[in-house]
Every structure is written in C-alpha cells, then in structure tokens.
Amino acid sequence: EPAAENACGSRDTASRTPKAKLAICSSNCISRSPINSTKRTARRLVDQCAELPGGDPFAALEARSEYQLLTGDYASSLASARESSARTPADRSSVRYTALECELRALWQLCDFASLREAASRLLALGSLSECSLSQANAMYASSCLFSGDAEAAAERFVQAEFYAGQVLNDFAKVDALR
Q1: CB of 116 within 8 A of CB of 104?
Q2: DSSP character string of 114-150
Q3: Which of the 8 DSSP states describes residue 64?
Q4: Is the dihedral of CA 28, 32, 38, 41 positive or negative?
Q5: How far apart are CA 157 and CA 163, in angstroms?
Q6: Residue 52, by phi and psi: left (phi above 0), alpha (psi -120 to 50) or beta?
Q7: pTM of the model
Q8: pLDDT tens digits, residue range 88-131?
Q9: Is the dihedral of CA 89, 92, 93, 96 positive or negative?
C-alpha cells in the first residue's frame, strides 16, 4: 500500500531517514510557497510580454530587466537595461528613461560606483520626467563622486537630490525618492 502524502506534499516511507524526510518536506514547502508561485507567474508574464505579436520590444526588455532586478539577478538586469537603452530610438525618451533607471538600480546593487556617474549623467540629460528618479539619480551620482574622491561634486549632487526630493508631493513617491 502506498504511503500517504504528508502536509508538505511528500510521500513518507519508512526507509527514509528523518534528515532526508526533512529535506524533502522543506524542498516541497519552498517550491509550493506563495512567493515562488508569484515569482513563476511573474516570469511567465515577462516571457509572454516578449512574445506578444506586434508588442513593444523595448517594453519587453524593460519588463525582463525589472524582473531580473527584483529577483536579485543584477548582472542580467544590467545587461537587459543596457540592451534596451542601446536599441531605443532617440525620439522615445520616456522608454530610454525607464531603461536608464533600471540600469542605475542594477549598478547600485552591484556596487559599481565608477559606472554610476556616467549612467546617472545620461539619465539626467534626458530632462525632468520624474522628480523621484531625478532625486535618486543625483544621489547615486553623488555617491559615485564620493567614491572617486570628488567631495565638491558630491556635495553639489546631494543638494540637487534634496531639491528634487522636495518637489515630490506624493508621500509614497517621496519615500521612494529618499531611499
């Protein structure tokens, strides 16, 4: 007679050691967790975005970059963001802006302070599409300056970051601008 399924979805047998049973149970519980289910769903949606007939290839790359960023795959996120930015036509500044925003966040997570300054400069050159993003870009630029020993430029960029954070009126966006 087959063993009954336990609470974790595993069939216990008398021949397994308690340690093996615990490992199987833990593995099954983790793979069935709501977080992993949500992650799989998000991955599926990102893949579907890329396969939409007549879909926007830039939106698909940005969705992939954002997914990779949120799942901790920072190097892949950076590569996707850079690909989107490089392929985006010049007249689509809002799309380029989003790609550069993802690039900045990936560089920040990778602690690539040397590259942050150049990426922040490209985002800031696009103009004022979001005070929140401008605040963050200036703060990241300032951090890059600090790591390179340019305290004067860092101070100037921190002032700019504070200025743009002060322009944000929505409380939730302000929290985002100040992080």
Answers
A1: yes
A2: HHHHHHHHHHHHT--S-HHHHHHHHHHHHHHHHHTT-
A3: H
A4: positive
A5: 10
A6: beta
A7: 0.68
A8: 887 877 778 888 888 999 999 999 999 999 999 998 998 877 88
A9: negative
